[in-house]
Amino acid sequence: MLGEYRISGRRASEIAASVEGGVGSGDLLPGQVLPPIRELAARLGVNPNTVAAAYRTLRERGVIETAGRRGSRVRSRPATTARGSLRIEAPPGGRDLGGGNPDPALLPDLREALAAAAAAYARRPGLYGDPPVVPELAAAARAAMDADGVPDGSLAVVSGSLDAIERVLSAHLRPGDAVAVEDPGWGALLDLIPALGLRAVPVAMDEEGVLPGDVRRALRAGAGALVVTDRAQNPTGAAVGPERAGELRSVLAEHPGVLLIEDDHGHAIVDLPLHPLAGTTRHWAFVRSVAKAYGPDLRLAVLTGDASTVGRVEGRQRLGPGWVSGILQRTVAHLWASGAVDTVAIARSYGERRDALVHALGERGVTAYGRSGMNVWVPVHDETGAVARLLRAGWAVDPGARFRMASPPGVRLTVSSLTAADIVPLADATAAAAGPVRPAGHG
Fold this sequence. Notes:
Layout: H1 12-25, H2 37-44, H3 48-60, E1 64-66, E2 72-74, E3 95-96, H4 111-123, H5 135-147, E4 154-158, H6 161-172, E5 178-183, H7 187-195, E6 199-206, E7 209-210, H8 212-220, E8 225-229, H9 242-253, E9 259-263, E10 283-289, H10 291-294, E11 301-305, H11 307-318, H12 326-338, H13 343-363, E12 375-379, H14 383-392, E13 395-396, E14 398-399, E15 410-414, H15 423-434
Helix pairs in contact: 1-3, 2-3, 4-12, 5-12, 6-11, 8-9, 13-15, 14-15
């Protein structure tokens, strides 16, 4: 059952650490069955309740899963094996198209904004007990959301999109609950869900986002939450259009108790309008990160939602980091107010690179998806082979396994580092690597 690996420990924490260590080292493989509770308890000479507590801890951490009478087994993708570890490193002289980073040349110079934030701090340093959201950022964020039709709600500031999603999920769900997620979808989110002890339910998509029929099936099957990317979906570039938004609102209206989380990390790098779903359900959260347009290192996202959700997030935040630095908040507020970021030019730049690559691949008979944002998704017949062939040609791309659950194989290409001269050789290499695939979409 376990091969040569021996689980050890006398206390629940020690047993859990032993299993988690085996998973992390690769001695316990995904899908490997663990001993029944009573059998392992007898082997270790401990009470069965001790082993049960260890297994419960491992489930909550996303390391193992239990399937009734079939017992407990290591998750197919345990939280200790992050999808990010599947990254392919570019060889010397090669090009890295797998980082998912924005183009540094399009990020703003922060010196003026940081100086303005420092000057405000000199006039009045941030102190314990201050409001967690600085007024300048709240006003700028709310004005932008009003312009996009996001319903009015309380505001919180958190450390990026993933931090926001984690806090919202933790505020409403409990271990064992199911979360409907895009497939293919953001790898970090697919790691986070089992790490919280939750179950990810894949929802198929096309270029306009999640398919309403699949969402309806997931919610009817008991999913307690739905996470949707409005624009620049990672990895496919999908964007929710007006008709799709209307269809999804109708589905959500049938399930008013479902938690809805919208991720708008594509704000300021996409020229497509936002069609928010927020407000359709009783509990909802809308997250807007500044990472792609202003820089990942700012570690800031604005969150709005119903009063209960935002209140729970802020209450829990006070017991941890407390708040996001007011200096960072004022820096971002200054960038928004000063117009230091030319969002039209940024969207055009990414769009030209993305569209050129999709068009060039189409001319070579390769189906590719990339409606918005900085990524292109290419379905392939043999994912491992395609990645290896592209690597030999000097291009390091992301294997689709980082992003997939039940969807067909593919690779993700991030276009932010491409120049016009790169398009033809990259398209040639990708066409040679892709192999024959079904002409169907990526959902």
